[in-house]
Every structure is written in structure tokens, then in C-alpha cells.
Design brief:
receptor, G-protein coupled receptor, flat, GPCR_Rhodpsn_7TM, G-protein coupled receptors family 1 profile domain-containing protein, transmembrane helix
């Protein structure tokens, strides 16, 4: 419920309680995938450090640290695969295209 004058009607988005839109579900799925990959990549180093008592095997230690660094590399691919907005942004970035819709939106918001 909105009070009069509290929010401009064009900016107000009202969701029914307990109902998720398709966009919300896609975003939630993307967050779960990102969290899952984070856990999978950090779990080996956690197990190595917890079980080796200060003398980790060099191979396991190296692989575990490579997985930690891999999370930084994996995230952009997850974003690109699961979000059409990110795909469009990456495409614009790689092709050196200006996003005129974005610049016109920011100019319009500054005027109000």
C-alpha cells in the first residue's frame, strides 16, 4: 500500500506477497549457482587446511589455491550464461558499442 505523494506511480512496483516474478526466480537461481561454485571452489582448501595440521601436501595445496583463484574467473561466465542483461552488456563492451538507452536514462533521471 502506497501513501499519496510518497512514491511516484511510475517508479512504484507492487508485488503480491509470496509471489515471485520470472525475473526474480532467474536472479535467485543465478545467486544459488554463484554461491554453489564458491562453496565448491573453497571447500578443498578448507579441507586441506583442516586435515593436514600445518603440513599440507604441495600438490593438494596448489590445486586448492588454483580453485580459489578460479572463482574469480568463473563468475563472469556464470553471469553471462544465466543473465541476458549481462550477455548484452558483455556484447556491447566487446564490440565497443555505446549503450545509448543507458545514457539517455541517466540523462532523464538527472533532469527530474
Amino acid at each position: 500500500i502506497l501513501r499519496r505523494g510518497s512514491v511516484r506511480p511510475s517508479m512504484a512496483v507492487i508485488h503480491q506477497k509470496g509471489k515471485m516474478t520470472a525475473k526474480d526466480r532467474r536472479l535467485l537461481w543465478m545467486i544459488f549457482v554463484i554461491f554453489g561454485t564458491f562453496v565448491l571452489c573453497y571447500l578443498p582448501i578448507t579441507l586441506v587446511k583442516a586435515t593436514t595440521k600445518g603440513r599440507p601436501k604441495p600438490t593438494l595445496n596448489t590445486i586448492s589455491y588454483v580453485l580459489i583463484y578460479a572463482t574469480v574467473c568463473i563468475n563472469p561466465f556464470i553471469y553471462c550464461c544465466l543473465s541476458s542483461e549481462y550477455r548484452q552488456a558483455y556484447k556491447s563492451l566487446i564490440l565497443c558499442k555505446a549503450d545509448w538507452n543507458l545514457s539517455s536514462r541517466s540523462n532523464n533521471s538527472n533532469k527530474t
